[in-house]
Amino acid sequence: MSIKVWPISERPREKLLQHGAESLSDAELIAVLLGKGIEGKNALSVAHELLNELGCLRGVVTATKESYSKVSGIGPCKYAQFQAGFEIFKRNLEIKLKRQDVFNNVDDTKRYLQAKLRDCEREKFALLMLDSQHQLIAFRTMFNGTINSAAVYPRELIKQVMIDNAAAIILVHNHPSGVAEPSHADIRLTAEIKNAMASIDVPVLDHFVVGDKETISFAQRGLLT
């Protein structure tokens, strides 16, 4: 049955306009993004198929283009819509960090880093470049690795810090295993990078490890020695 013949209070788009996006179920949110259904299926039915195929809302947002094609009637255009929506979300988080002291807003920083790195299948090592007010200049992915490691070269980090004219930095990498607990290698690497950055008077304020369910701050753990 077409959504257009439903009572207005039950139509996802109208429900959003009347009560806010938070009042919608996952399927209803997806239906609004889809805009319309396909022949023989309304948008909400297609949304339920996407959730069944991809597992959950997070799966829908992070799925590959190939995964979308497994749902009848969903092509590259719909995939592009969801990717654009997710990118808007990440950029909005980044804008907040460009307007505030990143070091003193750990929770906002963690949310941003989770959006950037949590669903990466391979390990990435990045820097948050900060100005003298500890506001974000840029997020720089410096090294890409395998499913369990990434080679990191402090010399290359120093080069990028100088290019960005950063006054301070925060280190960040993800653990594709999903477990955010820092390893002994992570702790050694942090100390090595701190020593390297001291040669150009750029402090390392923190090191975040992004896992599946949590993001750990070295500074909060007392590991930034």
Could you characterize the architecture of this molecule?
With 225 residues, this protein is of the alpha+beta class. The chain has helices at 12-19, 26-34, 43-54, 57-62, 65-68, 76-97, 106-117, 154-164, 184-198, 218-221, and strands spanning 124-130, 136-144, 168-174, 204-210, 215-217. It has ten helices and five strands, in the order H-H-H-H-H-H-H-E-E-H-E-H-E-E-H. The longest helix has 22 residues, at 76-97. The chain is elongated, with a radius of gyration of 21 Å. The relative contact order is 0.09.
Helical proportion?
40-55%
Amino- and carboxy-terminal Cα gap: 63 Å
Q: Tell me the number of helical segments per DSSP (H or I, 4 or more residues long).
A: 10
Query: How large a portion of the residues is in β-strands, by DSSP E?
Result: 5-15%
Run of helices and strands: HHHHHHHEEHEHEEH
Largest sheet: 5 strands, mixed
What structural class do helix, strand and pairing data support?
A: alpha+beta
Q: How is the secondary structure organized here?
A:
Layout: H1 12-19, H2 26-34, H3 43-54, H4 57-62, H5 65-68, H6 76-97, H7 106-117, E1 124-130, E2 136-144, H8 154-164, E3 168-174, H9 184-198, E4 204-210, E5 215-217, H10 218-221
Parallel strand pairs: 3-4
Antiparallel strand pairs: 1-2, 1-3, 4-5
Helix pairs in contact: 2-3, 6-7, 8-9
